[in-house]
Amino acid sequence: MSIRQLSENVINQIAAGEVIERPASVVKELVENALDAGATRIEIATAGGGLTLLRVIDDGGGIAAEELPLAVSRHCTSKLSDDVHDIRSLGFRGEALPSIGSVSRLSLRSRQAGGDSGAEIVVEGGRVGPVKPVAANRGTTVEVRDLFYATPARLKFMKSERAETAAITDIVKRIALAFPAVRFTLTGTDRGTTDLAAVPEDGEGLLRRISQILGREFPENALPIEAEREGVRLSGYASIPSFTRGNALNQFAYVNGRPVRDKLIAGAIRGAYMDALPRDRHAVAALFLDVDPALVDVNVHPAKADVRFRDPGLVRGLIVGAIRQALEASGMRAATTGAAAMLEAFQNPAAGPAAGNGDGRSRFAAARSPEPWRMETSPSRPLEMAASSAGGFGAGEQAAFSVDGAVSADTRAAAGDAPAEALRQPLGAARAQVHENYIVAQTEDALVIVDQHAAHERLVYEALKQAIHARPLPAQMLLMPEIVDLPEEDAERLGGHAAFLQRLGLGLERFGPGAVAVRETPSMLGEVDVPKLVRDLADEIAEHDTAETLKERIDHIAATMACHGSVRSGRRLRPEEMNALLRQMEATPGSGTCNHGRPTYIELKLADIEKLFGRR
Ligand code: ADP
Ligand code: MG
């Protein structure tokens, strides 16, 4: 067979295989083009999961009639000069439109700001038609019909229409979050309408755009993240541990304003919350990395969803460090959704189980109908009833809120030695223990309920971790050193981290080319599969330049021990003990949630309580 040059159309279809994976990739390319053209309004319409129709209308700079044929030709772009490493626009390859045109029926209609008429060009399965004059508004309208009709094999690989529709929504949200000043409208016969109003391009505007996308409760349950190291800047918001989702879809990451789906960033977020969340829960976050373009390669894949950092360890460390620091500094915040769900349950004791926070986990037994409402079992029964039935303080010792929210002299005495000062602390003065697990405390303007088991477990865990990492961990000598064979690069990387690993109790050294000898392992781990541990560590160091896995395994053991050593619910605490627990929680970073990410306390503002009683 002789060697031939591939036809232009075959080249375009091959490129389409890479750039255009599914309808959402087309949407991404078209929306990025609109943004590159300086649009302030972008309207996206879809039908049939984007396979039947995709339309993107923008009010950007437009394309001159005579340039329309260029726009749909391969490697023609108005955006890149000669330096591939200095990429400022979203697009730069000049291959999206020709690729799309080679596998669909594409029409491009545009009018430039100064131009007095519009023009249109149509491409069908790679055949480019003539430029025709048409009436058009300022800006550009791109219509893609029958995507992949020209490549039936690709069409077969499409997921359900619903999955494609959802993927389009996801990509539009990801892009829109980074461009708050642009109004995005997403409509279609296959979906409800999403309309994201333009907001100012300042910090407050960004937060508004974030809440348009991640939900109105997000800002109240998020911590600002801000950090910088060696020229890499990180900013954004990450949720407090009691505000989580069942998947990681609500984690939005950007590198130099470009949305990315990156394993390193996702792993760093997971690592940051490791202590705070159970394995099956995921934080919600919007993170923006600003990196010198010379230190990051966004050119890895044509779809440009992942990136390659020159120094991955630095980026991971920055993200993990900044989020952990924010979590620790916030320490004492429980999710407002907990309090909100509780208020709702209080407000509507006769409603069905749906009265909770919507996910069917309402914990309030009294909300079960049709059982008639009874004072004794109502969540809004007076505290004395709850306390005496649970054997807490006697009714005579109960504290009472006086009208102005202050506490009378005898109730102050009743709470043991709790000084008036305790009232000014975030968790206040303990007033009672109910159901042998919940500490009811009072601050100057709120009622606080603490889950004593969860709180204590967290305190023990933090103390253990501190103790563990304060000095080198005890190691257990192996009878015979275990030799683990590895690729030479891995052996070398492990050797480079030997000192850090030794502190964690893992003693190893290089053992000739392509092997390490392990002499001792962390005593806390007990029996370990040494080769597996060593290979996992080598993988991690290769990927992230850290050996966090080992530290994480050790912390996990600390968490398990903490769980066993904690005050069980059911233990009665004396007032001094309760107050001591509250003060210790205030002093301990991260104690606002238990080791499994559930809140350790709920705070109800007096103002809200008054509202419940119709006093406001
Ligand atoms: P790239 O975006 O990588 O340059 P594309 O194939 O996506 O490549 O687009 C080719 C060219 O067409 C762009 O460089 C730009 O000049 C022009 N273009 C495409 N879409 C638009 C639009 N919505 N508004 C103005 N110009 C556009
Ligand atoms: Mg483009």
Question: What does this molecule look like?
Answer:
It is a single chain. With 616 residues, the protein is of the alpha+beta class. It has 19 helices and 25 strands. The radius of gyration is 30 Å and the shape is flat. The structure holds adenosine-5'-diphosphate and magnesium ion (MG). The site of adenosine-5'-diphosphate (ADP) has 21 residues, from helix 2 and helix 4. Residues 29, 33-34, 37, 58, 60-63, 71, 77-79, 91-97, 140 line the site of adenosine-5'-diphosphate.
Estimate nothing, just give the exact number of structural domains: 3
| Percent of residues in beta strands | 15-25%
Major β-sheet, in short?
9 strands, mixed
Going by CATH, the homologous superfamily of the largest domain would be: MutL, C-terminal domain, regulatory subdomain
Integer average pLDDT: 79
Termini separation comes to 88 Å
Evaluate the radius of gyration.
30 Å
Helix proportion of residues, in percent? 25-40%
> Would you report the number of β strands?
25
Short characterization:
The radius of gyration is 30 Å and the shape is flat.
Q: What brief labels describe this structure?
A:
35% helix; flat; binds magnesium ion; alpha+beta; binds adenosine-5'-diphosphate; Ribosomal Protein S8, Chain: A, domain 1
Fold blueprint:
Elements: H1 8-19, H2 23-36, E1 41-47, E2 53-58, H3 68-71, H4 96-103, E3 105-111, E4 118-124, E5 127-128, E6 132-134, E7 139-145, H5 152-156, H6 161-177, E8 183-188, E9 194-196, H7 203-214, E10 222-229, E11 232-239, E12 244-245, E13 251-255, E14 258-260, H8 263-272, E15 282-283, E16 285-290, E17 296-297, E18 308-309, H9 312-330, H10 336-347, H11 383-390, H12 409-414, E19 429-434, E20 438-442, E21 446-451, H13 452-470, E22 475-485, H14 488-496, H15 498-503, E23 507-510, E24 515-522, H16 530-544, H17 548-565, H18 575-587, E25 601-605, H19 606-612
Parallel strand pairs: 1-8, 13-16
Antiparallel strand pairs: 1-2, 2-7, 3-4, 3-7, 4-5, 4-6, 8-9, 10-11, 11-16, 12-15, 13-14, 17-18, 19-20, 20-21, 21-25, 22-24, 23-24
Helix pairs in contact: 1-4, 2-6, 8-9, 13-17, 13-18, 14-16
The structure holds adenosine-5'-diphosphate (ADP) and magnesium ion.
Adenosine-5'-diphosphate (ADP) binds next to helix 2 and helix 4.
